[in-house]
Amino acid sequence: GSVRVRPGGSPGVVGGLITSSRAGQPPHEHGAWAVAGCSKMSTLRCSQDETFSAYFTVMLFDSIGYELYAQDLQETNGSMGLGIYCTLDLDRAHAVGKEILVAEFRPTKADSERSGASDLLVVSEGDRETVGDRWRKRGFSGILFEGTELCVRVDCIAALYRRDWQKPQACWPGLARIVASMREPPFVIDDQTVETDAAWAKALERIKAHGDKQVAETRGRLESIWQQNSEQGGSGSCAIS
Fold first, then answer.
1. What is the pLDDT, as a whole number, of residue 240?
2. d(CA 36, CA 202)
3. Which of 115-119, 140-144, 217-221 is predicted with the least confidence, judged by mean pLDDT?
4. Partners of 143 in the beta sheet?
5. Residue 7 pLDDT level (bands cut at 50, 70, 90)
6. Are 57 and 98 in contact (CB under 8 A)?
7. Do the beta carbons of residue 130 and residue 37 sit within 8 Å?
8. Hey, which of 67, 126, 223, 233 has its CA 20 to 30 A from 34?
9. Burial of 104 (0-12, 13-18, 19+ CB in 10 A)
10. What letter would DSSP give residue 80?
């Protein structure tokens, strides 16, 4: 992954699994999209502003401060086409050897004027090469593959924050903006917040624990959906709660 740096800026229940059965639908009706040769592919319908979390790995320069901006992420071209590649597997993220960030993303955003995309495509391992990057052309916000791997559009990422911060400098204004951009922040920073070194260290611990918890919850939901899709061969439908 990559992120470009700029001097300013601001950071920005479970849907049903619907079978893909026929082609020729416009992008906003992609729940009925079929691809020749694909037997295990379904649409995960996401409620408006439903939020998921995943790990994003990136190489960052030491000169970059604590605060990062979701809109500054640069999409990369990988096996599933252009997008932001994330994982729900912490061990896999560590193995990359880069900085681990937590990204909150909303596949069906209330203000998705830029792309008009929504929902996630769920594809089995055997159908990955057949689908490729066509999920974008059909109006999906992202694709779930290998059970724990995701590729999403950059504009559906609503919050981005560091999992770890080893430098001694505190950045309360940046942390306040990050917390404000999160769907369910673990705490609130306001004019009553005591900005001591001890409070900063505690805030970082809580942010890290919160991110890991949110990713674990997302994994519990999405990995089971992917497994169900693979086992059922893309047939049938279900509601997840």
1. 34
2. 53
3. 115-119
4. 121, 151
5. very low
6. yes
7. yes
8. 223
9. buried
10. T
Which structure tokens are listed for 158? 């609503």
Residues 114, 122: contact at Cβ < 8 Å? no
Tokens 């001097």, residue located: 7
**In the prediction, which pLDDT does 153 show?**
95
DSSP-derived secondary structure letter, 154? G
pLDDT the model gives residue 112? 54
At 185-195, the pLDDT tens digits run: 999 999 999 99
The token pair at 83 is: 């997008």
User: What gap in Å lies between CA 169 and CA 63, rounded to an integer?
Assistant: 12
Rounded Cα distance, 157 and 152, in Å? 8
Length in residues, the chain: 241
* Lookup result for tokens 């229940």: 13
End-to-end Cα distance, the chain: 32
Both tokens of 224, joined, read 């089971």
Query: Can you spell out the DSSP letters for 18-66?
Result: EE---S---GGGGGG---TT--SEEEE---TT--EEEEEEE---TTS-S
